[in-house]
């Protein structure tokens, strides 16, 4: 009876095993694992971030009215180039003009009152001077009459003259004293009149100051009836027609928008992971389909210095000279910022790194000159998703296994099948 084919195969394998055990011959040597290798590259390594960005005018001001009235004249239109303080439009404000004229008339009237009070004060001063002179005259007359009375009184006592003459002299003395009292009263009256005139003058001057301030305020408000350009720029919006009613309290949209776009600001929001890397002066490039040459280069000019708590991003601004007018406010594009610039850095493909021991640095499989594998720990830096910077662990001359999905053991023999 013929034996099955598997019987002969089993017998042959047993024979080979016997030869191997007793004849010390290898059975079948294991084939080395085939690997691809690369060498590290020495490159200029840059960390960049690319974010959506928009163009803004360097200055952008909406012009509203401070006063109400009908538009008397509109001097500019969309696209017009304007200079600082150039009139854009004027509003008719007849009530304010009439009120300003009335205030001016009140000021003139008050000033005339001041002149009248000052004249009264001057008259009172004159009256005081005259009355004080009369007092001195009265004092002299009283002194003379007193001397005469004393002389006559002594003669009367010696019976040299009659008592009637003494009484006449005494009467004259009393009259002189009475006259002095009247003159002194005139001085007091004149001083009171001077005080009243000075008080009235001071009050009138205060009223003039108040009226003058009101008048100045009215002139300022009337000046607001002429809308002026805040700076050199271009009219980008006009929402006013001649004869249109302007209500300063119910304005829903600006009458004009003036922009200054000889310089522009390009703004982008940088995510939190890149915030610590960006600095003023970093190189930046703005790409936009609306640009004549597609892109424009510059530097980071300003940083917001704080993150928006809603988006966790920080505003970054690049200022660009725009004298040719290529950039228009509102353009949209991408802003690429070079966050870090590292020349002569060692990089390897991301596929060459493998996980090391728990808590340890990653490793790369380095193939020696004898085609054996060693695990080399490395410290990594920048990672762009394709290449990884090696900060420590490699010299740049090693042969490194790439694209290896499985794990190679230290000392394991490999067969190099390709090299880059």
Describe the structure.
The protein is 35% helix and 35% strand. The protein has helices at 5-23, 94-157, 163-223, 272-275, and strands at residues 33-38, 41-63, 69-74, 81-82, 87-92, 226-228, 233-238, 245-246, 256-271, 283-287, 295-299, 302-308, 313-321, 332-349, 353-354, 363-367, 373-377, 379-383, 387-392, 400-402, 414-419. A hairpin with a 3-residue loop joins strand 18 (379-383) and strand 19. Helix 2 packs antiparallel against helix 3 (163-223). The chain is elongated, with a radius of gyration of 54 Å.
**Rg (C-alpha, Å):** 54 Å
Per DSSP E runs of 2 or more residues, the count of β-strands stands at 21
Distance between the termini: 61 Å
State the shape.
elongated
The major beta sheet can be summarized as: 11 strands, antiparallel
Q: On the 0-100 scale, what is the average pLDDT?
A: 86
Assembly classification: single chain
How many helices? The count is 4
- Give the helices and strands as they follow along the chain: HEEEEEHHEEEEHEEEEEEEEEEEE
Helix share of residues? 25-40%
- The low-confidence runs, each spanning 5 or more residues with pLDDT under 50, are 1-28
Question: What structural class do the secondary elements suggest?
Answer: alpha+beta
Strand content: 25-35%
Features:
420 residues, alpha+beta, 11-stranded antiparallel β-sheet, 21 strands, 35% strand, elongated
The gist of it:
The chain is built from 4 helices and 21 strands.
Write the layout of secondary structure elements.
Elements: H1 5-23, E1 33-38, E2 41-63, E3 69-74, E4 81-82, E5 87-92, H2 94-157, H3 163-223, E6 226-228, E7 233-238, E8 245-246, E9 256-271, H4 272-275, E10 283-287, E11 295-299, E12 302-308, E13 313-321, E14 332-349, E15 353-354, E16 363-367, E17 373-377, E18 379-383, E19 387-392, E20 400-402, E21 414-419
Parallel strand pairs: 1-21
Antiparallel strand pairs: 1-20, 2-9, 2-14, 3-5, 3-8, 4-7, 5-6, 7-9, 9-13, 10-11, 10-14, 12-13, 14-19, 15-16, 16-17, 18-19
């Amino acid at each position: 009876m013929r034996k099955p084919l598997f019987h002969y195969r089993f017998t042959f394998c047993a024979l080979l095993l016997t030869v191997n055990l007793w004849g010390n011959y290898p059975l079948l040597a294991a084939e080395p694992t085939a690997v691809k290798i690369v060498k590290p590259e020495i490159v200029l390594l840059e960390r960049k971030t690319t974010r959506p960005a928009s163009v803004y005018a360097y200055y952008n001001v909406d012009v509203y009215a401070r006063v109400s009235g009908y538009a008397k004249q509109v001097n500019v239109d969309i696209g017009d180039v304007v200079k600082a303080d150039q009139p854009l439009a004027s509003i008719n404000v007849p009530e304010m003009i009439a009120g300003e004229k009335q205030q001016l008339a009140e000021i003139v009237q008050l000033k005339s009152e001041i002149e009248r009070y000052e004249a009264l004060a001057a008259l009172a001063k004159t009256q005081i001077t005259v009355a004080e002179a009369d007092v001195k005259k009265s004092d002299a007359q009283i002194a003379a009459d007193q001397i005469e009375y004393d002389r006559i009184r002594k003669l009367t006592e010696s019976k040299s003259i009659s008592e009637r003459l003494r009484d006449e002299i005494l009467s004259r003395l009393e009259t002189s004293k009475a006259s002095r009292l009247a003159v002194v009263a005139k001085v007091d009256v004149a001083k009171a009149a001077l005080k009243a005139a000075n008080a009235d003058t001071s009050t009138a001057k205060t009223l003039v100051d108040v009226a003058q301030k009101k008048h100045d305020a009215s002139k300022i408000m009337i000046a607001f009836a002429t809308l002026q350009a805040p700076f050199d720029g271009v009219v980008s919006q006009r929402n006013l027609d001649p004869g249109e009613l302007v209500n300063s309290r119910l304005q829903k949209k600006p009458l004009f928008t003036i922009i200054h776009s000889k310089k522009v600001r390009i703004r982008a929001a940088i995510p939190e992971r890149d915030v610590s890397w960006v600095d003023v002066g970093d190189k930046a490039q703005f790409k936009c389909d609306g640009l004549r040459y597609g892109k424009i280069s510059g530097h980071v000019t300003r940083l917001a210095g704080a993150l928006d708590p809603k988006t966790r991003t920080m505003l970054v601004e690049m200022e660009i000279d725009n004298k040719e007018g290529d950039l228009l406010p509102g353009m949209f594009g991408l802003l690429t910022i070079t966050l870090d610039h590292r020349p002569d850095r060692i990089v390897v493909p991301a596929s060459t790194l493998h996980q090391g021991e728990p808590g340890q640095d990653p490793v790369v499989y380095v193939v020696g000159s004898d085609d054996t594998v060693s695990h080399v720990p490395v410290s990594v830096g920048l990672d762009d998703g394709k290449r990884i910077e090696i900060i420590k662990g490699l010299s740049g001359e090693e042969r490194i296994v790439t694209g290896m999905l499985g794990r190679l053991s230290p000392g394991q023999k490999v067969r190099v099948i390709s090299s880059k």
